[in-house]
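Researcher: Sequence of ABC transporter ATP-binding protein follows. Predict its structure.
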Amino acid sequence: MIEAVGLTKRYGAKTAVHNLSFQVRPGTVTGFLGPNGSGKSTTMRMILGLDAPTSGRATIGGRPFRQLPNAPRQVGALLDAKAVHGGRSARQHLLCLAQLSGIPARRVDEVLGVVGLQDVAKRRSKGFSLGMGQRLGIAAALLGDPQVLLFDEPVNGLDPEGILWVRNLMKQLAAEGRTVFVSSHLMSEMALTAEHLIVIGRGQLMADMSVKDFISANSADFARVRTPDSEPEQREKLTSTLAEAGGQVVAEKDGALRVSGLPLPRISDLAHEADIRLWELSPHQASLEEAYMQLTQGAVDYRSTVDQRAGLQEAPAGYGPQGGVPQGYAVPGYTPGQPNPYTQQAAGAAPGQGYPPPAQGHPYGAEPYGAPHPYGQQPQAPAPMPPSAPAPAPADPATPHPEDAR
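Model: Prediction complete. Tokens:
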């Protein structure tokens, strides 16, 4: 079991982790979530003894990591998949780790097979892709067959097959009674992998509960209701009926209604009593991502802003519906709300073809230099040869080259 009690870490005037306390129990995949800069990696480093806490303590099985006898056989970790000597092969890297911990060499070949790197075991790791590096890091964590495992972004760079493999591996390790602590930013993957969540923001604990309880506590379920699109009066009637019954009704852009505060059977009964036909009545449960965003929206340190130059981008020719130009683009000679002048069909062109007609041959038409260019930019005529630099006369084949006469 991993336990943190009053864990605090300061770097000068900056507090990365503040008074953090939690437990990671065996037999369960525990997800470790938080925005960028929230202190997740710092917390894992303190658990593994790589950083000393300013105050508080982090223990594994009741002991600090540095006091564990032969720690690699008890704890495995993947914090940085790039922490590998690039000149060594995958097998040499694992063999070095095994010899330092008294692990037999046959275990190296076993974990290479577990992570699927047996065919590239003799290749230098500097030529590995990001996903292959992640697999090698996972192999190093499994090398000592430990009971406690920590993974920081283990699916980073993996393909869909690799992500599925990691998910099943985590579940299998937890089912064997091991303690599995996984940090990730992929909410959809955490929803499928983790059973318990620890969420921190700006170095402080925000949630410590099961995935199911976390979603219920930080989101509101609602029902999606739709009436016939050809009968808008039915939609208005249903809105007023549900509001009178105590429901909260919000209109969505596609014409459906989002209803909260009323169970689905009650919505169905109210619509039946009001003689309103329903095309859709479906429940909606919030996802882990929605619940996470709801909880951590006030603890995000790095927020993106609107690009102020977005409206200065030139639209590609023919972009937009019916030859129009999408909102946010600026095109020379174009008036918003009018068809795009660069996609209007030219005279003589076949239907569906733009400018110029195929019969003109040259991609820009037969206009001479100096005529308006159809795409808004006029090509420049080639500069004439200066009179003081006459063209060289062709060489006489019979005259030997000076270099050949030597």
